[in-house]
Design goal:
Shape: globular
Order of helices and strands: EEEHEHEHEHH
Strand content: 15-25%
Strand order of the largest sheet: 1-2-4-3-5-6
Number of strands: 6
Helix content: 25-40%
Radius of gyration: 15 Å
Length: 172
């Protein structure tokens, strides 16, 4: 497979795009970043790779020495945890297909994806090495104690009029 190009996973149960890093060498383990998109990118058309993390990786691939996995959930009406099994299957398939360092799997997402980042990690805390939720929200009592020992780099604009920034502060 050609490093630097996007590859689709067939067995994950959701449309998934994986971006391989420049210089990918299967002889050594690589970090994996899992990106969960927001409500506006739902569907089955691949646009999850065109908003958020995808364009940043495409613009400066040299700054992303990792694989980036971007699943796409079909429905904005359902939160990411409704597709948790498919997200975990996509991660498992990526780990089987490429040499991924199991100690360096990061989970990130924005808005609904930020929510998914909090909740999916809380349900699978041993899988992820760190979290980067962006304007996320979630059930504080369920999430906070389960992610307390993980490194978290949370972002939330204090003027966000869609997702209340107090949601992020409460979990932290």
């Amino acid at each position: 497979e050609v490093a630097g190009r996007e590859v689709e996973l067939e067995e994950a149960g959701l449309p998934v795009v994986v971006r391989l890093p420049e210089g990918y060498d299967p002889g050594r383990p690589w970090p994996l970043v899992v990106f969960l998109h927001g409500a506006g990118e739902c569907g089955s058309d691949g646009r999850q790779a065109q908003v958020g993390l995808g364009p940043a990786v495409a613009a400066r691939p040299d700054r992303w020495p990792c694989l980036v996995l971007m699943p796409q959930k079909p429905s904005r009406e359902h939160q990411w945890e409704a597709y948790e099994d498919q997200v975990l299957a996509a991660i498992a398939e990526a780990r089987a297909r490429w040499n991924i360092d199991g100690d360096r799997i990061a989970l990130t997402g924005l808005s609904q994806g930020g929510h998914g980042t909090w909740v999916i990690c809380a349900r699978n805390p041993g899988l992820f090495s760190c979290l980067v939720p962006v304007c996320g929200y979630g059930p504080v009592a369920e999430v906070a104690p389960r992610v307390a020992r993980l490194p978290v780099w949370a972002f939330h604009g204090l003027r966000d009029d869609i997702v209340d920034p107090r949601e992020t502060l409460a979990i932290m």
